[in-house]
Known about the structure:
Layout: H1 19-27, H2 33-45, H3 52-59, H4 63-70, H5 73-95, H6 100-117, H7 119-127, H8 129-137, H9 143-162, H10 170-185, H11 187-190, H12 197-207
Helix pairs in contact: 2-4, 2-5, 5-6, 5-9, 6-10, 6-12, 7-8, 9-10, 10-12
Amino acid sequence: MVGPNGAKLERSGSGEGTQLSRQLRDATPKPDALTAFKLARRTFLAGEKVDMQHLLAELRVDRATLFRWVGNRDQLLAEVIWSLTEPTFHRAVAEANGTGPERIVDAITRFVRAVIDADFFVAYMRREQRRALRLLTTRATQFQHRLVAEIETFLAQEKAASGLSYPLPIHDLAYVITRIAESYVYADLITGEVPDADRAEAAFSALLGIGPGEHP
């Protein structure tokens, strides 16, 4: 096509387009591992099932690319749930009251209550019961290992700050606390009982030698 002054103009949509169109096209963010993770996280927070086929369709990539980015569905779910669990635990620690064992019990109880009260998490547990227990409470993923490590770090910090004496080595104590938390968070799936943060608090208190009425 020729313009008024004889200059050649490119047809819209032909070839590579204009310099501006090429710059706009190149500036469009391309999907990557983080894009896939964020999409899965939004889906999970909405209380919906994280489906790999849905991710493939949304991201417009092939299966091999998606699996190279995020691993299999179990690995992706574990990462999504951990991305929500870690800040929840840190917030519980930051908001905890008291000192020494009382602060530890308050922090862990706040964490347990936050998990129990999270609607999106409850929806996931009801939707994928066996898979959830396997991913979150066994070595099938790194989730439980990470949680034990977070609690262990917290216990070590409290010991350094107030000179606490624990009834068990710190790693063992962190593991026991994790298992107690799991017992009450997943009570409905394990024993058919109602998840109960107050009962978890009583168990943590007994473990750390806090008597009735000594909570902050």
